[in-house]
Structure formats: structure tokens, C-alpha cells
Amino acid sequence: PRFEEMLSTLDELLKLDPSPVAHERRGYALFKLKRYDESETAFKAALAMDERHYPAHNGLGVLHINAWLLSDREKEDAHQAALESWRKSLRIDGNQPRIREFVGMYQ
Fold first, then answer.
1. Which tens digits make up the pLDDT trace of 81-98?
2. I want to staple 46 with a disulfide (CB 3.0 to 4.6 A). Which of 8, 9, 56, 71 is the partner?
3. Contact present, 79 and 38 (Cβ < 8 Å)
4. For residue 8, how many other CB atoms are within 10 A of its CB?
5. Distance CA 54, CA 46 (A)
6. How confident is the model at residue 1 (pLDDT cuts 50, 70, 90)?
7. Element counts in the chain: helices (H) and strands (E)
8. Chain CA centroid to CA 91, Å
9. d(CA 79, CA 62)
């Protein structure tokens, strides 16, 4: 119920005051609810508003690496999309040790 409540609150916020942060947080909530297609749409909505909103790039990276892992590492396009998203994020803000760790772990 926690992520359902979060999603409901964010949906209301987005009606009143759309922002990249709200879209990115919505993407995170949807990911946690395993609503992956909607999650991707939300992360992309954040980036449409601000292509430098690096948390949305990170969200897409996690979403794509999850798809790759769930495919038993067969969806190589998802693997490459994850790495590309994280690298874009690091070009915007290089001070993200966890994201650097992910790139090193999955490349």
C-alpha cells in the first residue's frame, strides 16, 4: 500500500504542478509496483521536461537492467540501454558512487 499511496499523491501533485522530480518519483513508485511500462513512461516524461534530470536517467538504467536480468540476460538491448542511461547520468553529475558501481558491475 505504501507505493500505491505514493503514486496517488504524485498523480495529484502532477495535476497541480508537473515537474521532472514528480515524474521521476512516479516512475520509481511504478517500478516498485512492477508496472514497468508505466514506469518507463514516467521516467521519460521527467526527461522530456528536463533532459539533465539525472535521477530519471538512473531510474531508466535500473528499469532496463531489471528487464535484462529478468530475461536471463538475453535481452542485450535492455543491458545496453541501462549502461547508456547510467553513463548519461554520470556525464551530468559524476559524483554518484552507486551509479559508477552499477556501471562497473554490469558492463
1. 999 999 999 999 999 999
2. 56
3. no
4. 11
5. 10
6. confident
7. 6, 0
8. 16
9. 10
> In this structure, are residues 60 and 43 in contact, taking their beta carbons and an 8 Å threshold?
yes
Residue 78 carries which DSSP code?
H
CA–CA gap between residue 71 and residue 61 (Å, rounded) = 15
Three-state DSSP at 15 gives helix
Write the single-letter amino acid at 2.
Answer: R
For cell 500500500, the residue is 1
| Nearest-angstrom CA–CA distance, 61 and 45 | 15
Please state, in angstroms and rounded to a whole number, the distance separating the CA atoms of residues 74 and 53.
29
Please report where in the chains the cell 518507463 appears, as a residue.
40
- Cell numbers found for residue 67: 528487464
Backbone angles phi, psi at 75, to 5 degrees: -80, 80
Question: Are 63 and 34 in contact, with CB atoms under 8 Å apart?
Answer: no
